[in-house]
Amino acid sequence: MASQPSDAPFISFDAIANQGLGGPHTPFQAREEDQQGIAMVPVGVTEEHAPGEHGIAITPVDSTASSTSHTSKYEEFDEENDLKVYHGHSDFDAELQVSQIQGSKWYFGKTKRAAVKFLYMIVFSMVGALIRIVLAQLFGEECKNPGTIGWLKAGQPLCVTADGETSLEGGIIFADLPANLLGSFIMGVMQSTVTMNLPKPFPIAWLNENNLFQTYDIIHAAITIGLCGSLTTFSAWNSEMVLLMLGVDSDRGSLIFRGLFGYLIGVETALASFVLGKNLAKYLHSVVNTSLQKEEEEMIKKRECGVYINSQLSDYERRFISEFEMDEFSIYINPAAEEQLRLWRNSTREHRRVGNQMLPLLTDIEYSSLVLDENIVQELLVPAMMAKWDLEALAKWREFKRDLPETRLNFVQPRDFRFAPAFGITFFSVALVSIGVIMFNKYDEYSIMCRSMLYCTLFAPAGSLLRMKISNWNGKWKRYDWFPLGTFAANFLACIISASMIGIEYRMNGDQDFWKSGTIRAMKIGFAGGLGSVSTFINELSDFLSSQSPIRGYMYVLASVVLCGSTSAICYFIISLNVEPGTYYRNGNGYGY
Question: 249 exposed, middle or buried (CB, 10 Å; 0-12, 13-18, 19+)?
Fold first, then answer.
């Protein structure tokens, strides 16, 4: 939304009438101006598409009609989307705040900041992949190949998973199920207050709003994208179900119904784990943010009455305008200042309802004036005047607010990360894993397992970083902009790679050369495992199911399972065609970890 600089003089109502519309900083231009009224569309936007989510249209009015009949509205109003115009501003403003710390000793600009994020993504991706591989070994591989996990040799292994070989009983409790559950749980715990519809926006819901970790935005991304993305894997889960349905062992044949049920189990259990983590975060939020818990109770009451809560405002403004009864958590300020905010609240009360066509305009004005502390552009003033909103009271409140610290909005400032520590941690992590690959060079089961595990870990960051890049495609499919195209593409590509590597490994029939067989497995387990992500997939599914169009969630799941499963099955079938499994596979050494 365009707005005038904060140091520009406030535009008086008389100036609007005398000067008309337009000007060098005006993002709108007149489309029609005659006796029937006026309509405006954004510059550069065709009339066919105007106005969009951020545009304003003033409906034509009869010049002979009284001023009380003047109405304005947002055409093509979408309750679900238009009321979320500013839900992303917490991240946007945090990015802008980087420029405010240029005086810091360790400030280094956006390029090196992106490099720091890149480095921490590598470290957390490796950690996530390593945990996933260890869990798969712990819960299933030790049962199939005893002695591969040293610390379980004299203990009781947890034989609850299988890798998709039909020669083994079960199979629907696939090898990566524990990792997918854990990663989805962590993703749920790491949700922001915005995704939970809590009163005040800040990055990590389960922490106190003033906790220092709230400023670690790069670490937040590394945990959710890097750690959770590599800890969970869509490709390995899909490959294991494909093996069940195709039937690897000719003695037993296809188990198609087990494979289909395995898909269902994988989605439902991961979704339940995500919801559990999200509910835990919400509970901890109520414990460590007691005043916000009281506000949430009031917010639920107001929303049941159809009142829209503008979560972008400061605590005092949000609670006062929404008429919350805060009891002992109430904030008391100068009565004269409070009176001006009361006048603004009373004049806008009837438009502060979910579904009201003036509501997007109202949130635009409040964000510009109360959050950004900028003057309201003329194009927003005109329809607001027609709606008889008390803009003079809003302007006076804005002046009072500058001298009232308790009414100011405190943005979450991103932490100023240093490049050297990030590089040092990444270099040390990669070097340590690489040394492990070289040191475990014996040919016993335990050494081979450790070496393969560490080698796979080195491939995981490449998959995670590629997934992060492809995720930029989300929302870019114009016809179906709701569809997470980037996440789907990453999972689709990962499934193809994973199935293809299994087919190639099948043809190799247990080649003992580590660098050949190890690289194939590293591509399958490390790269494809990091490229495909269940945690992000489940996060998006949860958003769909809690939206006004839950059918989109089911369509998303169906498209992912059908297309990824069928395509990877075709790839595997073509590569392994006319090849009989040797003793290496019949002894249970293939396909899985």
Answer: middle
Give me the helices (H) in 191-314, please. Answer: 217-221, 228-231, 234-246, 256-288, 290-304
Structure tokens that stand for 243 in this block? 């093996």
Give pLDDT tens digits for 356-396.
Answer: 899 999 999 999 888 888 888 888 888 999 999 999 999 99
- pLDDT tens digits, residue range 470-511? 999 998 888 899 999 999 999 999 999 999 998 888 887 656
Give dist(CA 309, CA 312) in Å, integer.
9
In the numeric block, which tokens belong to residue 561? 């399972």
37-71: b or e for each residue (b if 16 or more CB lie within 10 Å)? ebbbbbeebeeeebbeeebbbbeebeeeeeeeebe
Angle between helical axes of 534-545 and 551-575 (0-180°, round to 10): 150
pTM over 0.90: no
Three-state DSSP class for residue 42:
strand
Classify the phi-psi angles of 61: left when phi > 0, otherwise alpha if psi is within -120 to 50, otherwise beta: beta
**C-alpha distance across the termini of the chain, in Å:** 52
Verify cis geometry, omega within 30 degrees of 0, for the bond prior to 484. Answer: no
33 has which bridge partners? 38
CB 278 within 8 A of CB 188: yes
**Is the torsion defined by CA of 164, 169, 174, 176 positive or negative?**
negative
Phi and psi torsions of 307, nearest 5°? -80, 135
Tokens matching residue 65:
């009609």
**CA 460 to chain CA centroid, nearest Å:** 20
CB–CB of 584/512 below 8 Å?
no
- Residue 579 near residue 506 (C-beta atoms within 8 A): yes
Of residues 95 and 577, more confidently modeled: 577
How many other C-beta atoms can be found within 10 angstroms of the C-beta atom of residue 181?
22
Q: How far, in Å, CA of 297 to CA of 577, rounded?
A: 62
3-class DSSP state for residue 124?
Answer: helix
DSSP-assigned letter for residue 247: T
**CA 171 – CA 174 distance, rounded (Å):** 6
Kindly report the number of other CB atoms within 10 A of residue 403's CB atom.
9
Query: Mapping DSSP to helix (H, G, I), strand (E, B) and coil, where does residue 168 land?
Result: coil
Would you state the structure tokens that stand for residue 430, as one six-digit string? 């990669």
| Residue 395 contacts residue 346 (beta carbons within 8 Å) | no
3-state secondary structure 431-496: HHHHHHHHHCCCCCHHHHHHHHHHHHHHHHHHHHHHHHHHHHHCCCCCCCCCCCHHHHHHHHHHHH
Kind and range of the H or E element at 38? strand 37-42
